[in-house]
């Protein structure tokens, strides 16, 4: 055997991986729930589901990543928030069917393990799990020398939740005349970053500059973590007759709201009920992006939609605001068969 034929010589450092685990241990151990069995370091995450709490439980599962927003984190060498994006993209998909996200596992692939960087990423994942009330029961960090550049990494996660069979939200519950409530996004969230990066490159925008109207650097604005709506929405479901919810991700409102509507029904959404956040106006102007394309690529300020009876709309908005979310009535379910987004954004 050659003297240099070792795992380390091939580009994989087991010692650096072990150091990353120790650096992240405190954060991961803080992202737990009473149902978690065992601790960090096992081959599988164990979770004791108390089936006595449910009559007919359904498990809900979702998997996702954060896409090319990672390139912004790499450009700024800031990696402690991208993990919250990862959690949000998964748990906010689970809650829209009425399920409570119970536990999550992450996967990180990288060209070379940098213990501090991996610990920062996983720390952000743990922070996101705490915000969602979801346990982080395990994960994997894989070093891929020769396949990925040393500074490159990618993230994915999968989460599992539970909901009573007779409380699943979705198209079957939606009726014409229902109100549509908008919940404000925290910014661009984690969709459309291929277009964001093209605009930055073509317009030669500086991530460290403070554009007029933002109040912070462009990089800081673009790294604002995706909002996690899970706890307030679970509370809302317990208090009101919520019919459906829509996580506004890639495709925007026109591409996502139809996914929770039954055949034959549509919706009318009024842009005049909210102002276009400055970051989207900046991207549109710098990139020459037409409004239709802007609304297909981005959330344009609305990260989640809630559909419920008109009679409950005002009370639901007040409840969401009391939980710290900016919410407002933005439209209505119609029998038009299509989603119409009308008028102009409020100045």
UniProtKB/TrEMBL annotation:
Record keywords, A-Z: ATP-binding, Cytoplasm, Ligase, Nucleotide-binding, Purine biosynthesis
GO MF assignments: ATP binding; phosphoribosylamine-glycine ligase activity; phosphoribosylformylglycinamidine cyclo-ligase activity
Chief subcellular location: cytoplasm
EC number annotated for this UniProt entry: 6.3.3.1
Pathway annotation: Purine metabolism; IMP biosynthesis via de novo pathway; 5-amino-1-(5-phospho-D-ribosyl)imidazole from N(2)-formyl-N(1)-(5-phospho-D-ribosyl)glycinamide: step 2/2
Record SUPFAM superfamilies: PurM C-terminal domain-like, PurM N-terminal domain-like
The PurM-like N-terminal domain, residue ranges: 59-163
Pfam families on file: AIRS, AIRS_C
Organism taxonomic ancestry: Bacteria, Bacillati, Actinomycetota, Actinomycetes, Sporichthyales
Protein name: Phosphoribosylformylglycinamidine cyclo-ligase
Gene: purM
The UniProt record lists the keyword Metal-binding: no
GO BP of this protein: 'de novo' IMP biosynthetic process; adenine biosynthetic process
Species of origin: Epidermidibacterium keratini
């Amino acid at each position: 055997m050659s003297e240099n034929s070792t795992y380390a010589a091939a580009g994989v450092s087991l010692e650096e991986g072990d150091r990353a685990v120790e650096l992240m241990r405190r954060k991961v151990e803080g992202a737990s729930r009473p149902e978690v069995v065992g601790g960090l370091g096992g081959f599988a995450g164990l979770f004791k589901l108390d089936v006595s709490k449910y009559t007919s439980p359904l498990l809900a599962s979702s998997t996702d990543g954060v896409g090319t927003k990672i390139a912004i984190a790499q450009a700024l060498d800031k990696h402690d928030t991208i993990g919250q994006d990862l959690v949000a993209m998964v748990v906010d998909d689970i809650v829209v069917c009425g399920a409570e996200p119970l536990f999550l596992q992450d996967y990180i692939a990288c060209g070379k393990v940098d213990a501090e960087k991996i610990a920062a990423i996983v720390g952000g994942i743990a922070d996101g799990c705490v915000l969602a009330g979801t346990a982080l029961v395990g994960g994997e960090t894989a070093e891929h020398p020769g396949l990925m550049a040393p500074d490159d990494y990618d993230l994915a996660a999968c989460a599992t939740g539970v909901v009573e069979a007779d409380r699943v939200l979705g198209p079957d519950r939606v009726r014409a005349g229902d109100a549509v409530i908008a919940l404000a996004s925290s910014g661009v969230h984690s969709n459309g970053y291929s277009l964001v990066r093209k605009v930055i490159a073509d317009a030669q925008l500086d991530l460290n500059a403070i554009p007029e109207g933002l109040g912070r650097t462009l990089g800081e604005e673009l790294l604002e973590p995706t909002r996690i709506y899970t706890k307030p929405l679970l509370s809302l479901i317990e208090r009101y007759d919520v019919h459906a919810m829509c996580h506004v991700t890639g495709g925007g409102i026109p591409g996502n709201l139809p996914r929770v509507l039954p055949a034959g029904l549509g919706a009318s959404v009024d842009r005049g009920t909210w102002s276009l956040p400055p970051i989207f106006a900046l991207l549109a102007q710098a990139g020459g992006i037409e409004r239709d394309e802007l609304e297909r690529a981005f959330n344009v300020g609305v990260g989640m939609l809630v559909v419920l009876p008109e009679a409950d709309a005002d009370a639901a908005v007040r409840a969401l605001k009391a939980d710290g979310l900016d919410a407002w009535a933005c439209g209505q379910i119609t029998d038009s068969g299509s989603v119409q987004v009308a008028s102009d954004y409020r100045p």
